[in-house]
Amino acid sequence: MKGPHSKTISETAAPAIKAPSELNQAGHWARGLSRRSVLKSLAGAAAAGLPSAVVQVFAQRPAEPSPKLQTPEPEVNVQNPAWYGFNLFEYFSTDPDWMKYFPYQNDGMFVEDDFRWIRDWGFNFVRLPMDYRFWTDADDLMKIHEQKVEPIDRAIRLGEKYGVHVNICLHRAPGYCSLDQQDPAIGMIPKIDLDQGNLSRVHITVEKMNLFRDSQALEAFAHQWTFFAQRYKGISSERLSFNLVNEPNPPMTPAEREALSASSMEHKDPLGVASEIFWGRNEQYARVARVAIAAIRSIDPQRLIVCDGHGGASPVPDLIDTGVLQSRHDYFPMDLTLYEAEWLPRPQPRKIRITSGGTGLAVSAPLYSGHWPEVNPFGHVDVDRDTIERAMGRWRKLEQQGVRIHFGEMGCYKYTPHKVVLGWSRDTLDAISKLHSGWALRNFRGPFGILDTERQGTKYEDWHGHQLDRALLNLLQKKMKA
């Protein structure tokens, strides 16, 4: 295993983060960023040749198609950052329902013991998926309450103290959150689930604007990253990176949904229509991401920037030329890893048709078999290590085009049986290691993690008042070898 940071990130040493009481003396940290300062940053970015904040985002699709993910000859030797660790949820969501399912205080006070134990167990990375509403004025999205940002400062200082890289992420950004798509009004829930009332059991307060279509949301999004770029300028990318937005997936427009439905009903190339819509949304996200990338680099050109894949799962070819690191979230297959997750509709049984003697009989089978590898009712393997490796094929091609990659989220929810978790984790981490990539579990403490998972059938060990899944910890420690 490599040291705590990637050797490919070389920057001069930066001064340590100042404690909150010293902030007024830290001249390179942001103070009272105004609307004008954001627009000035974006204007500078446009002058550097990147798209402007509003015009490019709402322009029509480019005439040229998206670049294809092709293996170059010869292959590019990319050294991915050797990050291994966990997500920490203290600033995850302002919606109180989440606290029913995740053991966090929802106060932003990141716990020092977490950083200490992560370091002591050999890990070196934490990702902080956060809700911008914690520190942003609800009546003025261009106003940030700096006192409420200080817990993030604290997390970065703890990362420095314990040699843990900190990746800050807008899990909820102005105008977008991946969880919002579980709201029926967004139009992303299958009709069968709507008809059966099979909806999220977690209350989610959805965004009123659309990051990918509303200029006000885009401006507020750029302002968030301008603020952080100013505040943390001078801190090495070996210690801190920016993850723009969690699992970007622009919602389909009513016209796109109608076109997709019509193509299916009329049997007119529904896969082709779906592909066209997908790539259009992929490019739409890339144009929004370029705005934030430009805003950050106009202030802090050396900052390491991470962009999640489209929906967390698919590479974004239109961002290859920006040099950002792209991150995959691995929950494949979701019927196993997110089994019975309260924020998702319950999976509908799949229909399997048995044909014998010219007659067909349709039977229902559960999506998740309860075993690993996954097997169907006839004993045939549906998902195993080979299937997982094939599912990562596009990421292998992306890396071969010179793009650094990382797996920023992964894991199994608490209702997946412990033996299945160990089997899936072993095979998935082996597949990731073939890409020479690091990874992070979705939780440290909590239902995807190694502490306090509440997973039945787990043999726990007491760890300073917490319940430790020692078997999973041991497995993770053995797989840190990108």
Which terms summarize this structure?
482 residues, alpha/beta, two-stranded antiparallel ribbon, 9-stranded mixed β-sheet, TIM Barrel
Structure description:
The protein has 482 residues and is of the alpha/beta class. The protein is 30% helix and 16% strand. The protein has one domain (20-346, 374-478): Glycosidases (TIM Barrel, Alpha-Beta Barrel), CATH 3.20.20.80. It has 12 helices and 17 strands. The N and C termini lie close together (7 Å). 42% of the residues are buried. Mean pLDDT is 82; it is low at 1-35, 41-66 and 354-359.
What's the helix count? 12
Radius of gyration of CA atoms, rounded to a whole number: 22 Å
Largest sheet: 9 strands, mixed
- CATH topology tier name: TIM Barrel
Describe the structure concisely.
The chain is α/β, with parallel strands linked by helices. The protein has helices at about 35-45, 110-120, 150-160, 190-195, 215-230, 255-265, 270-300, 335, 385-390, 395-400, 420-435, 470-480, and strands spanning about 85, 125-130, 135, 140-145, 165-175, 175, 240-245, 305-310, 325-330, 350-355, 360-365, 375, 380-385, 405-410, 440, 460-465, 465-470.
